Amino acid sequence: MEAGTMDKTSRDPRQLSNRELDTLYSELQQRAFEHFDLGALKAESGKLPPEAAMAQAQALADPLIARASEVNAERVRRLRRAARSYRIAASVIAVLGALLIAWMLASR
User: Fold this and answer.
1) What is the C-alpha separation between 93 and 10, in angstroms, rounded?
2) Predicted TM-score of the model (pTM)
């Protein structure tokens, strides 16, 4: 893993840009899935019993899943804030438009 990725992985999600959050979230998901894929391969090859292979994969993936949950919570927080801002802007524009139409009708 490169130093830049490791730095992003350990940083507070609030310090990352939206693009970095999305990239980090995808990387964490991919790495977690890789652990489960490797666990399945170990179970299929007979190196470990299926239960042990999946338990090992789960143990390796749990920190990644927890970190991905933190990153996703920040993504959701930002998206909700943006949606709230857009709703407010749309409401203001609707009110101003209604006032403009009312003024135009009243000035006839």
Assistant:
1) 42
2) 0.74
